[in-house]
Every structure is written in structure tokens, then in C-alpha cells.
Design goal:
Strand content: 5-15%
Structural class: alpha/beta
Shape: globular
Oligomer: single chain
Radius of gyration: 27 Å
Number of strands: 5
Order of helices and strands: HHHHHHHHHHHHHHHHHHHHEEHEHEHHE
Number of helices: 24
Length: 489
């Protein structure tokens, strides 16, 4: 869904002899990112369309969006969160519409809203957290603009039917892709009785969102990826991604909440005979709800990564430019985004892609082709390596990739020692890929290495370097990624 289209184009070009050497680690990396960079302009279009509706200046909103490192770094990567953000933007466009005279237009996009909501759910079930407020807002507009209950039901019926149809399409596609089910299977199912058909479909049907939810609702599974305090999104990730914009939204939220409480007190005083005017909040509280409600819902899960919040840049940009809130902080915002682009665009896990480029050339080298060798690539304390960049085909059974994730030192040493002492494989080459901050752990494993390659820069936020080491002569190793070849002689 995120990379298959671009991979298919590259493969077709090679089969047509238009580009004989198209498939390599570089094109496998760049082509999906180029496609997503083109898709990212959906976000620009959405901001331009939505800004007048939410009383924001379109061009100031576009400048703020384009200058954000979240747009430059995350929206040009093949994250499912990126696709989630684009679908969220389209959903906001569909639920926000005005007539030429400035009044609210009658909602007429029920089928498209159903399709996009279902597509977002199948991409990432967390999309429902982002879609909740736009859907409630749309439902409120439907009820307010229609006098006939029949028309209201008609809108909701269109949404549900289109959502169900889209779900059937996705389930069918996933079932064909993830199982061996083909046209022959369908033909044999037709000949069976109704109960047999239901049983076979239930057994073979793949519903990916349910698999996602069953895995992520298990606290033990989330703990494997790291557990965080429930306030991490609110206190850390929001600031890490959006900086001053997140802080301004928090300040405006507390101010609106305070004004709302004053309103309630004044209304109560008015009913007790005291006169007074209602206090109206500055700004649009709906945009704040579009921002904070998804943030609160995502905070219910113990595993909280910054990228989970990247779809929220849209309501935040609109809110920040609606009353020129961000203008007086423009210098702080610029500096923050430059530093953020350097950190997340260059340093953070920055050595992993060059490492995969290096290994791809190694395992597909002419020497390896002429004399078949077995390669074991063991990654530890890095992000999950994208195997596609190694250009491994189904017939390449001589290449084994092991992802140790954030394994403890003892587990890591046991695995490395087991590979080093495996004498059944004569022409085996074992490579251990670890950050420089974990280099000391490997030296205690009792194994030796005959080749070392240091890729710079590489920063692991999960295993950050100690500040004193950064001012020593060994600072490059702390900000690097090691490729260590085991000495099995």
C-alpha cells in the first residue's frame, strides 16, 4: 500500500529492458519516498482549502506547514502514520465546507467520508481516534441543517453502506495477498454447502485491523516495543514534534477552559438575580478538540512514539494561524524546526540506511555470486531494518536477517556466541550491527571480530550517548553505527 506501487513500476521498467539495473537499494529507498513526497502536497491543498473556513490566513498557514520539520521529515517517509495524516486531512476537508457567501454549506459528502474513514481504519486502526471529532462535527452539521429526519437517515445510510463496501474490498484484497487463496479456491467453495462456505471463509478471511488491535491491546506485546508513562504524548512527544505550537495550544486550551468555567459561574449568578455578560473565548475551540481529543485517546496506550502524533500538525497549524498566534514566536519556531530537521532527518537512526546500502553491495557482490556464501545479519538496538533495501529475493535463502530489537546484553551475547560457534556452516559470514553506545556490551561476549566498519552519524535515542563521552576523543564512536564481522577461524 505504501511502497508496492513504486516497486511495481521499477520492476516493470526492468522487465521491459528500459532500465536494466533499476532494482538496487538506492532506487528501492528513493522511489517510495518520491511517491510520498508527491502525496504530501495533499496536505498543502488541505491547508489552503481549510484555512478560510477556520478563519486562518491560507498563505501564513502554508508557510508554517512547509517550514515544519514534521512535514519535511515525516511526510516524505513511507510511514503508515504519514498516510494516516493525509487521510485525516482529506476527512477534514470533506467535513468543512462553506458557501460563497460565507455561511455553512449543507454536507453532501457522506459516501466519500465513509470510504476515507474505512480506508484510514484499515491503514491504521488508530485513525478512528483522529476521525472521531471530524465525524461528530459532521454529524452535528447534518442534524442542524436538515429539518427532515428522513434526510438525516439517508446521509448516515450512505456513509455506512460505502464504509461497508470499502471494508469488503480491503478484506478481500488482504485475504488474497496474505493467504494462498485464489480463483480455484473460490470455485471449489461455490460447490460447497452454505455452512461449509461460511466456515471456510471464516477460516481464511484476513481482517488486518483486528490483528492489529489484538496485538496492540496486549500489554506484554507493547512492552516489547517499550512502555512509556501515559503523559508522554502530552508532555514530551507533542513538544518534540511541534515545539512552540504545542505549548501555545496548551495555553489556549487552559485559557478557554478557564473562560468556560467563568461562563458557567456567571450564568449561575444570573439565575440567582445577578446581571452579567457571558465571556466568549478567543479562538476556535473546535480546532483544539480536533487536536487534543486524538492526543488524549492515543495516550491510553502505554507505547507512545512521536510519529503517532504527526497527523495532528493540520489542526495545530490552522489553530496557530487563526489569530496570528505564531507570528511573535517565529524566530523560536524557525530555530526549533532547523534543529528538529537535523536531529530526526540526519542524526536519529541515521546510520541504518547507509548500513543497509553497504550490506546490500556486500551480499550481492560478484565474489558472493561466484562462490555461494551464507550471510547472517544480526541487528541489535536499532530500528527494525527494512529488508527490502537489501534487495533480497525469494530465492536468496543464503541471506538471514535477525532483528534483536532492544535485547538485553545477556540475550545478545548468547545469540552472538551461538552463531560464532556454529561450525556446521563452513562458508558462513556473520555480521553484527549495533550502535556505538552498545559496543562495550559486545566486547564482553567473549568473541572476536576481524573487520569493523563505522558509519557516521548515527544517534539512537533509545541508547543515547553519555554527555562526557561526547567531549572525549572517542566521540565519533558514540555517534556511529558499527558493522562487526565475527571471526570464526
Amino acid at each position: 500500500m505504501t511502497s508496492g506501487v513504486s516497486y511495481w513500476v521499477i520492476k516493470s521498467l526492468q522487465q521491459l529492458d528500459i532500465c536494466s539495473s533499476c532494482i538496487n537499494s538506492y532506487t528501492l529507498l528513493v522511489s517510495p519516498r518520491l511517491l510520498f513526497t508527491m502525496f504530501s502536497f495533499i496536505l498543502d491543498y488541505s491547508v489552503y482549502r481549510l484555512a478560510p473556513f477556520w478563519e486562518a490566513d491560507p498563505w501564513k498557514a502554508l508557510v508554517l506547514l512547509a517550514g515544519s520539520y514534521v512535514t519535511l521529515v515525516f511526510y516524505t517517509r513511507t510511514f503508515t502514520n504519514t498516510l494516516e495524516g493525509l487521510l485525516f486531512a482529506l476527512l477534514m476537508v470533506l467535513v468543512s465546507s462553506r458557501k460563497p457567501d460565507g455561511s455553512l454549506a449543507e454536507p453532501t459528502s457522506s459516501p466519500l467520508i465513509g470510504i476515507i474513514t474505512t480506508a484510514g481504519f484499515f491503514n491504521r486502526p488508530t485513525f478512528l481516534a483522529f476521525a472521531l471529532m471530524p465525524l461528530l462535527y459532521w454529524a452535528g452539521l447534518i442534524v442542524d441543517s436538515q429539518k427532515s429526519i428522513k434526510t438525516v437517515i439517508n446521509h448516515f445510510l450512505k456513509l455506512v453502506l460505502c464504509a461497508c463496501f470499502t471494508a469488503i474490498v480491503f478484506v478481500t484484497a488482504d485475504t488474497f495477498y496474505f493467504t494462498s487463496m485464489g480463483l480455484d479456491n473460490l470455485y471449489s467453495i461455490k460447490k460447497s454447502s452454505l455452512f461449509d462456505v461460511i466456515g471456510q471463509l471464516n477460516e481464511k478471511m484476513i481482517v488486518t485491523p483486528f490483528n492489529f488491535l489484538s496485538y496492540n491491546l496486549n500489554p506484554r506485546n507493547l512492552a516489547l516495543h517499550g512502555s512509556h508513562p501515559r503523559v508522554t504524548h502530552f508532555t514530551v512527544n507533542g513538544i518534540m514534534l511541534f515545539g512552540m505550537l504545542h505549548i501555545l495550544a496548551i495555553g489556549a486550551g487552559f485559557k478557554m477552559l478557564k473562560n468556560y468555567i467563568h461562563q458557567l459561574i456567571r450564568v449561575e449568578s444570573h439565575y440567582h438575580g445577578s446581571s452579567g455578560l457571558l465571556v466568549h473565548s478567543e479562538g476556535n475551540p473546535t480546532l483544539l478538540l480536533f487536536y487534543f481529543v486524538p492526543l488524549a485517546l492515543l495516550s491510553l496506550f502505554s507505547h507512545q512514539e512521536p510519529r503517532f502524533l504527526i497527523p495532528l500538525i493540520l489542526p495545530l497549524v490552522l489553530f496557530s494561524t487563526s489569530q496570528n498566534r505564531a507570528v511573535k514566536w517565529k524566530h523560536v519556531i524557525v530555530i526549533f524546526n532547523v534543529l528538529g530537521a537535523l536531529l530526526f532527518g540526519c542524526l536519529h537512526q541515521g546510520g541504518l540506511i547507509p548500513c543497509l546500502f553497504h550490506l546490500e553491495q556486500l551480499v550481492h557482490s560478484p565474489e558472493s555470486s561466484n562462490h555461494p556464501r551464507h550471510y547472517t545479519l544480526l541487528f541489535a538496538h536499532t530500528y527494525m531494518p527494512p529488508r527490502s533495501l537489501l534487495n533480497i529475493k525469494k530465492r536468496d535463502t543464503h541471506i538471514e536477517v535477525i532483528d534483536m530489537a532492544g535485547s538485553e546484553g545477556e540475550t545478545l551475547c548468547q545469540t552472538v556466541e551461538q552463531r560464532a560457534n556454529n561450525f556446521t556452516c563452513k562458508d558462513c559470514h556473520v555480521f553484527v550491527i549495533i550502535p556505538g553506545t552498545v559496543r562495550g556490551t559486545i566486547t564482553k561476549c567473549g568473541v572476536s571480530f576481524k573487520n569493523e566498519t563505522l558509519i557516521f552519524p548515527h544517534l539512537s535515542m533509545e541508547d543515547p550517548p553519555q554527555i562526557p563521552f561526547l567531549f572525549s576523543g572517542n566521540w565519533r564512536s558514540q555517534l556511529g553505527l558499527y558493522i562487526l564481522q565475527l571471526d570464526r577461524d
